[in-house]
Amino acid sequence: MSDMKEERITIRLDEQEHFLLHSLAKRENKTESEIVRAALRMYVKEVFAQQSCYDFARELGIIGVTEELPSDLSTNKDYFERFGE
C-alpha cells in the first residue's frame, strides 16, 4: 500500500463500463482503482499538454498578482542587469 494521502470519490458506471473496467483490471492483474487512477493521469496529462504555460498560469490566477512591480518588468532589459551574478 502506498503512503500517499488518499481521498475517496464515488463514480457511477453502467453495466458495460463496469464489465470493461473489471475485465481490464483482471487482465492487467491490477485493482479497479489502479486502472481508474492510471486513466485519470493519462487524461489530465493529455488535457494539460494542449495548454500553453501562459494559459495554465492564467487559469491558476498567477498572472498580474502584484501591483508593486513595474509593468514592463518582463520586457525591460535594464531590470536584468547583473541578473544571475
Lay out the secondary structure.
Blueprint: H1 15-28, H2 32-49, H3 53-60
Structural descriptors:
mainly alpha; 85 residues; single chain; 3 helices
Mean pLDDT: 87
Give start-end ranges of low-pLDDT stretches: none
Through-space gap between termini: 46 Å
* Radius of gyration, in angstroms, nearest whole number: 22 Å
- The coarse overall form would be elongated
The computed structural class is mainly alpha
The total strand number stands at 0
How helical, in percent, are the residues?
40-55%
- Biggest sheet, open or closed, and with what strands and sense? none
Structural summary, described in words:
The structure is a single chain. The protein is mostly helical and 85 residues long. The chain has one domain (15-80). It has three helices and no strands. The chain has helices at residues 15-28, 32-49, 53-60. Helix 1 packs across helix 2 (32-49). The longest helix has 18 residues, at 32-49. The radius of gyration is 22 Å and the shape is elongated. It starts with 14 loop residues before the first helix and ends in a 25-residue tail after the last helix.
